[in-house]
Amino acid sequence: MRIGIxxxxxxxxxxxxxxHIRDLAEYFIRLGHEVSVLAPSDDDTPLxxxxxxxxxxxxxxxxxxxxxxxxxxxxxxxxxxxxHDGAFDxxxxxxxxxxxxxxLTCWAAQGPLVATFHTSxxxxxxxxxxxxxxxxxxxxISARIAVSEYARRTLVEHLGGDAVVIPNxxxxxxxxxxxxxxxxxxxxxxxxxxxxxxxxxxxxxxxALPRIxxxxxQARLLVAGRGDAEEAVEDLxxxxxxxxxxxxxxxxxxxxxxxxxxxxxxAPNTGGESFGIVLVEAMSAGAPVLASDLDAFAQVLxxxxxxxxFANENADALAEAAVRLLEDPARRAExxxxxxxxxxxxxxxxxxxxxxxxxxxxxDGTTAVATDERTxxxxxxxxxxxxxxx
Length: 390
Prior knowledge:
Oligomer: single chain
Largest sheet: 7 strands, parallel
Number of helices: 18
Helix content: 40-55%
Strand content: 15-25%
Number of strands: 15
Low-confidence stretches: 366-379, 386-390
Structural class: alpha/beta
Strand order of the largest sheet: 3-2-1-6-7-8-9
């Protein structure tokens, strides 16, 4: 199958959507499919052979963050050329409601279109304002996927229609087989995320840290991610700053080793999350997880069975839970075991097959590759996509 995938956000700036698209493309390539990804990127940036640049992106405030998007006449021309050259059996657009390549592709594409919605925002002013523009484009979409029930709810409330829920995928074995790094072990708390983005929750964790260190003086906080390290610790008492180590951006291999090494992974995100891919990665690596009780995080952690939850933005609750877990090796071992079992449902062997079933369902009339067995992998798939069974 010839598959075209559209990434809305700049390939140059790593993020959850970009990682999802990268891993999805590489999963399909391993299966023998022909895959091309169209993404914003500086023209001089080295790209994987399957990625085509749609030109430089610009920073735009979006969904409580700053997204690097690509829109305009030059981008539209590159979209049309990519579609023409690709002659795809199916085109898969991610975040088609964002003002970026996905919307341009909706306008330009002919043939089967699949869209994945990642955003969870019950009060999206951007979606409300752009409803009339989006509606005409989104009517061309053959099937809709949401990465979580909360992303599906945002879609339904703002744009109407429905979607089948297929979560983000992770290569579970890649994380499970990583070798721990000795210098990252020993009463360590881990955090991965953009330091300069408040909704990732590092300020909440920093506020909790003095209480954690008062109970566990030997503990350390390891922070991986881009941003200003000095600004991140400016409210922390000076004598405690040496207990925080900033690693900067880490490679995929080092991220896996990081998660295999820490005693506790903390996700203090404050909102705007539709899924929580880093929680799945942490569980895959066997890290006990402590996360804020966002609805999306609670769903990923099986309502607290596969990881513990604390009250969102409550630094005292975070500190209390972190100290309790650091002092209870048996409980951490239990969370490792439960998390490692729970996370298998997010492996690409399952998630990728479900997405491929959607492709086969919407191309059934043109490529005749769908079968009842494959399309039934996701319960009620054809019904949820609004397609009648043959």
